[in-house]
Design goal:
This protein is α/β, with parallel strands linked by helices. Helices cover 50% and strands 12% of the residues. A seven-stranded mixed sheet has the order 2-1-3-4-5-6-7, sandwiched between helices.
Length: 291
């Protein structure tokens, strides 16, 4: 099968390679000419044989909006766009309607696998019409892990990115739990080998997981994480998960707390903690730490 791929960064570049290894033709475009197979979106569309399929793998928000708007003007009736970035699911509906006016189909694909996906495959959560998904199923088969799992047609347009959003919200909570446990163990004077405690959990325990394996890997590189600043970005999905929980009256306290913990990481001297310290001093006479 032949497919166009827009965005050849860490994820997109590896996806291009994995698809090609499966015997398919990929025409790739990226703003960095050193990565691209063609010089523009227009050239990419002209290179592909109709009916075309174009996979968009660029950052969420305006980059995705701009790419899909440009593709809407370049593609023809019967063509198909797959958004495999981390777009918010509400944007999928807007993009699908825009492309529908041009006679172009739309599929949203939540993609998980990170830099390991080239060798291990990518988990794919896909939203859209059955016939549209069927058209590009050979590409999904090439990208997903070997075996029967790793791919799901989650539902209508938006379902793929909604599912990926919840996946990432769960990931926030799991990572926060591991981080809190690590800090607590590091603070305990009687525990002298924290790294190996974590390693011991990778076999036989109910919390064994790939995330745990990756934390052990990180501790092998830097046992006390002394070279890393305690600052963590959030890429959007955690916020969207919390907002969806509010909209649907579904409580998400663990995910919400993990998101707020990331906000705390950005403050070298938390203003909130200043107020709490001051209050503790006022009502209980507790000492405050001053600069």
């Amino acid at each position: 099968m032949e497919i166009g791929l827009v965005g050849l960064g860490k994820m997109g570049g590896n996806m291009r390679e994995r698809i090609r290894r499966a015997g398919h033709t990929v025409v790739g475009y990226d703003r960095d000419p050193k990565l691209a197979d063609v010089g523009s979106l227009k050239e990419l569309v002209q290179t592909l044989q109709a009916p075309r399929a174009v996979w968009v793998m660029v950052p969420a928000g305006e980059p995705t909006d701009a790419t899909i708007r440009e593709l809407a003007d370049l593609l023809s009736v019967g063509d198909l766009v797959i958004d495999g970035g981390n777009s918010r699911w509400t944007e999928d509906v807007k993009h699908a309607e825009l492309l529908k006016e041009k006679g172009v189909g739309f599929v949203d694909a939540g993609v998980s696998g990170g830099v390991w996906g080239l060798e291990n495959g990518y988990a794919l959560m896909v939203g859209g019409a059955e016939d549209a998904i069927g058209r590009v199923m050979p590409i999904f088969e090439a990208l997903k892990p070997e075996g029967d799992s790793g791919f799901v047609h989650a539902g209508a347009v938006g379902a793929g990115h909604f599912s990926k959003m919840v996946h990432n919200g769960i990931e926030y909570g799991m990572m926060q739990s591991f981080a809190e446990g690590w800090e607590l163990l590091e603070a305990a004077p009687q525990v002298t080998n924290v790294r190996e405690v974590f390693r011991s959990w990778t076999e036989g325990t109910v919390i064994r997981s790939w995330l745990l394996d990756l934390l052990v890997r990180a501790l092998d590189d830097d046992e006390h994480l002394s070279a890393i600043r305690g600052y963590a970005d959030d890429s959007g999905e955690g916020r969207w998960t919390v907002e969806a929980g509010i909209d649907m009256a579904v409580p998400t306290p663990a995910i919400t707390a993990s998101l707020y913990a990331r906000f705390t990481s950005r403050q070298e001297d938390s203003p909130q903690m200043k107020a709490i310290a001051a209050l503790r001093n006022q009502f209980g006479g507790h000492a405050v730490h001053k600069d």
